[in-house]
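WARN  no MSA supplied for this record, continuing single-sequence
INFO  ligand: iron/sulfur cluster
INFO  echoing inputs
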Amino acid sequence: MPDEPDENISGGPGGGGREVAFDLSESETTRAAVVVDRLGDLYWRKAYGGQGGFECLVRTILSQNTSDKASQPAHDELMARFSGGDLAESLAAADREALVDAIRSAGLYNQKSKLIIGVAEEVLADFGSEADFDRYVRKADPAAVRERLLEMNGVGPKTADCVLLFAGGRGGVFPVDTHVHRIARRIGLAPADADHEGVREHLERDVPAEACGFGHTAMIQFGREYCTARKPACLDGPEACPMADVCAQVGVSPETGDVFDPADVRE
Ligand code: SF4
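INFO  complex generated
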């Protein structure tokens, strides 16, 4: 993974969202619910929503294939130079070089600047303004919003789900990034060979709706601190990981020190 900050951008006291109470009821004792409840004990229990849909879309495009540490300054610089009025309007009319210059720290700036101008033009053409698009993200049927977002060039399932979660404030949306994809399959919350969409389907089926948002952000944090790609904590023994008693350790062998992608594990 690229260099990452100590704290997930949406976690902790400064990261936005609001605290929520989440009590694991007896009817919600799927392993996925237990894991997410424990992530809540370890980190935070938050509900999300309230960000502007278009700004969130731009932020998520900037964050593709890079770390929060690199994409946050790019987002801040973009906002400093292009916000003030209707963000979609200013980005649709943006000088490409000026946009590239603003977002350079996020990497892949040529590609990302093209995508951002493209989505800005599309939002203006189809919704009329940033505010109308934001309203659509908040109010329309979530499945329809997801489908519409996925039609945009450069918007994949993770980006669409992040917009639904952080801007739409929709419950039951569990975006799957590389950490979530790895950890859910290692623990055994999804089949070892599930792709990102397969993992999302399992998590959204098994995790209570109000816990999906912080399940996503806290699982990312857990992936940075404990269940890292190359050196999961349990290689040092079960006491090194707070999930050890609920984890199937698919692809992780503390006996030999081997770590495989769960999809490569032979029965
Ligand atoms: S026990 Fe190992 S594989 Fe399972 S969550 Fe912990 S670190 Fe990851």
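The chain has two domains: 18-47+174-264, 53-167.
INFO  checksum written, moving to next record
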